[in-house]
Amino acid sequence: MKRQETTDNKQDRVTPTLSVEFRTQNYDLTPAVREQLEADTQKLAPLLRDFPVVFLHADIHEHPHQHDFHLKLSLRLPNDTLFTGERHVQMRSAYLQCVRQMATKVKDYKAKLAKRADYAETR
């Protein structure tokens, strides 16, 4: 079976500090769907405004034989990278679930950073 893989080399800025890149396998990302996903990504913006630069990589893989999608998001922060993934029969549902999971991970990461800062101040 021939595998199709495309990388969207155009990195769009969703916010002044958040860039997004989409990579697809066996799936054609239309401009309309891309706009929807970028709007969904905007939900992360309030959590990320404290970081100087943030890069989100979205890997969208359609499994034609299983009739579902596998999505992976990696969020590159200045000193760390957070990952999440999800499978669903609808691509956007999988993406939204990944965004929700990523929001939780960002909140946890920021709480961990706050604890480190509090510890450093007490020393």
Note down, in words, how this protein is organized.
The protein has helices spanning about 30-40, 45-50, 90-120, and strands at about 5, 10-15, 20-25, 55-65, 70-75, 80-90. The mean pLDDT is about 85. Strands 1, 2, 3, 4, 5 and 6 form a six-stranded mixed β-sheet that branches. It contains three helices and six strands, in the order βββααβββα. The chain has one domain (about 5-120): Double Stranded RNA Binding Domain, CATH 3.30.160. InterPro entries: RHF-like, RHF/RaiA.
Radius of gyration: 16 Å
| Order of helix and strand elements from N to C terminus | EEEHHEEEH
- The first-level CATH class is given as Alpha Beta
Shape: elongated
**What is the CATH third-level topology name?**
Double Stranded RNA Binding Domain
Distance between the termini: 60 Å
Continuous helix count: 3
- Structural class, judged by helices and strands? alpha+beta
Oligomer: single chain
CATH superfamily: Ribosome hibernation promotion factor-like
Helical residue percent band: 25-40%
**What is the number of domains?**
1
Main sheet properties: 6 strands, mixed
Number of strands: 6
**What low-confidence regions span 5 or more consecutive residues with pLDDT below 50?**
none
**Taking all residues together, what is the mean pLDDT?**
87
- Residue fraction in strands: 25-35%
CATH architecture term? 2-Layer Sandwich
Protein name: HPF/RaiA family ribosome-associated protein
Organism: Sulfidibacter corallicola
